[in-house]
């Protein structure tokens, strides 16, 4: 699912992304295991974004809305939302965003839902006036 209109871009990343607990556990096992987890997640998110957004490049600052859809309520909300780091890094790597600093991302909001049949994260990226 993706759509674009008037500086608003949305797309869905299917599946459960690693949270802070998974990332921390991987790093404690071996630092390269943590790096591999981040790299694999970045690549998956980049693939999903390129597939849905194509070659879109956003130069204006943005506000990002995340709708986290979980299979159940087992993971803590802050653990789930940690994956935004992977998402934002991937969007920078593929050129959708110029950077993920204060000048480029003015803020974000998190919403949480449960759908056992379709977990993932829906992003809505909204361009804002500089």
Write the topology of this structure.
Elements: E1 2-5, E2 8-14, H1 20-29, H2 31-53, E3 62-70, H3 77-81, H4 84-93, E4 105-114, E5 120-127
Parallel strand pairs: 3-4
Antiparallel strand pairs: 1-2, 2-5, 3-5
Helix pairs in contact: 1-2, 2-4
How does this structure look, described?
InterPro entries: RusA-like_sf. GO terms for molecular function: magnesium ion binding. A hairpin with a 2-residue loop joins strand 1 and strand 2. The protein is globular and about 40 Å long. The chain has one domain: 2-Layer Sandwich (60s Ribosomal Protein L30, Chain: A), CATH 3.30.1330. The longest helix has 23 residues. It is 37% helix and 29% strand. The chain is an alpha+beta fold. The relative contact order is 0.27. It is built from 4 helices and 5 strands, in the order E-E-H-H-E-H-H-E-E.
Spatial order of the strands forming the largest sheet? 1-2-5-3-4
Percent in helix: 25-40%
β-sheet strand percentage: 25-35%
Low-confidence stretches: none
H-E string: EEHHEHHEE
Q: What count of domains describes the coordinates?
A: 1
Q: Say how many strands there are.
A: 5
CATH fold-level label? 60s Ribosomal Protein L30, Chain: A
Derived structural class: alpha+beta
Shape: globular
Per CATH, the superfamily is Holliday junction resolvase RusA
**Rg to the nearest angstrom?**
14 Å
CATH top level label: Alpha Beta
Overall mean pLDDT: 94
Figure out the total of helices.
4
């Amino acid at each position: 699912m993706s759509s674009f209109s008037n500086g608003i871009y949305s797309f869905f990343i299917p599946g459960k992304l690693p949270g802070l607990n998974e990332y921390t556990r991987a790093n404690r096992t071996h630092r390269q295991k943590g790096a591999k987890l981040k790299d694999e997640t970045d690549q998956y998110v980049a693939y999903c974004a390129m597939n849905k957004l194509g070659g879109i490049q956003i130069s204006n600052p943005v506000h990002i809305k995340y709708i986290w859809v979980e299979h159940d309520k087992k993971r803590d909300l802050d653990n789930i939302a940690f994956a935004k780091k992977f998402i934002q890094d991937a969007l920078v790597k593929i050129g959708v965003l110029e950077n993920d600093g204060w000048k480029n991302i003015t803020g974000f909001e998190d919403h949480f839902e449960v759908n056992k049949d379709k977990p993932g994260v829906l992003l809505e990226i909204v361009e804002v006036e500089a």
